[in-house]
Amino acid sequence: MIKTAPITIGGGKLTLQEVVLVARHGYEIELDASVKAKVTKSRQYVEKLLAEKKVVYGLTTGFGKFSDTYISSEDAKMLQVNLIRSHACGIGDPFPAEVARAIMLLRINALIQGYSGIRYSVVETMVEMLNKGVVPLIPEKGSLGASGDLAPLSHLALVMMGEGEALFRGEKLDGKTAMDKAGIVPVSLEAKEGLALINGTQVMTAVGALACWDALQLAKWADCAAALTTETLQGVRQAFDPETHDIRPHAGQQQVASNIRKLTQDSRLMTNQGELRVQDAYSLRCVPQVHGASADALQYIHDKLLIEMNSVTDNPLIFTEQEKVISGGNFHGQPIALAMDFLSIAVAELANISERRIERLVNPQLSGGLPPFLTKYGGTNSGFMIAQYAAASLVSENKSLAHPASVDSIPSSANQEDHVSMGTIGARKAAKIVENAYNVVAIELLCGSQAADYRGADGLGKGTAWVYAECRKQVPFLDEDRVMYTDFRKAVHMMKDEAVLKDMTETLGL
């Protein structure tokens, strides 16, 4: 990887793209010069409270139901260590390394705002871990998403203490060995610091941020696939004329209609109203309305994630200027839980309508003269028959996964924490739906490209010709049956390739 300048955090708003660069592409970070004074001032106020033996939740008390139990200053350090060890109750496979890196980045971004009472040196340790490639192994399951992501974040804190498990340069190691090999000194937690490390929404937000970024790119490909399919089915172009969309001015609907017009510009395959038919099926004619609704949802989700990524979500919060410590509920994941359920539904619908377009391409009763299942040798060859099965399977799975997690709540901590968000479950489900949807749209792109070869690819519009050419760089025409799952993988890889996405933006203006 080419060495890049580090991303500075703490001086402004962290963006979704910056999260992706750090999480997936190994970008290092540095802290803005203003950060140290804010963090240090907050810590000094915590130490003042400790010296005065004030009764403050999380500093000199237990946690949850034990919030009324006083802890002496002598036991404060043990309290923090016990907190991390007892709360590291994660279950299941670990999150991918990119998610763990995103979690660390977002936790750092919350702590450096100066409301958490943590020592600056502890933040520096996490920065060093991120920059040197120590990746905590954080189990996916075990968070209720209400007192923050307590269980998964405890697995991050364990490695900081030289415990738990981590990856370093691709090797799975115990936390102490990983830190030693990276040349990082583990931390010895002081009062408040264990709680500051684990009380927050960074796990659900990290998973959600990466899934939302992928969904935003997928939405562009869904428009490309829809345009290609509409052309090869000789769709009616007037459905995308601006007049219709100007009198129902949802931003997403207008944008998608504009995208379809750009993509099909100068097409000789599109037809006029009444030429072959008066109107198309909904999966073609209503693309602006359906894709557009998902586009609007994705914009809402993006905006909510930006707020959360740049917020302080632990407890209690230290307000040094007002000399206050407030025990509130910023750790509650409901804002992200609802957004993640919305993400699930919005992306599931992109896949849902895509599968219906696939069906029209492969079904000879609906395709307007294309060969059955897009193969010349039907009978001895199945063509894209089972590709549609696979898409239908993923769409059906998405319907189950899209059931909202946020409507569930189970009381915890002896009913002290009696309403929880399940936001992390929602985020994990949304990420699965996004991955499934990529594969469905990939299948549509390949079906559309196959149909274009039969119709005459030289008749495609300016934009769809680019889409077709990119698909054909990856996957050749299906003349006779071959193993197809590798074709799907190649198409998905193309859709996620940053160079291709950059070219899409520059060439098509999407």
UniProtKB/TrEMBL annotation:
Contains an active site 4-methylidene-imidazol-5-one (MIO), which is formed autocatalytically by cyclization and dehydration of residues Ala-Ser-Gly. The modification 2,3-didehydroalanine (Ser) is found at residue 147. Keywords: Cytoplasm, Histidine metabolism, Lyase. InterPro entries: Aromatic_Lyase (IPR001106), Fumarase/histidase_N (IPR024083), HutH (IPR005921), L-Aspartase-like (IPR008948), Phe/His_NH3-lyase_AS (IPR022313). It catalyses: L-histidine = trans-urocanate + NH4(+). It is an enzyme of class 4 (lyase). Its main location: cytoplasm. Pfam families: Lyase_aromatic (PF00221). GO terms for biological process: L-histidine catabolic process to glutamate and formamide; L-histidine catabolic process to glutamate and formate. One of its GO terms (cellular component) is cytoplasm. There is a cross-link at residues 146-148 (5-imidazolinone (Ala-Gly)). PANTHER family: HISTIDINE AMMONIA-LYASE. Belongs to the PAL/histidase family. This is Histidine ammonia-lyase. The lineage of its organism: Bacteria, Bacillati, Bacillota, Bacilli, Bacillales.
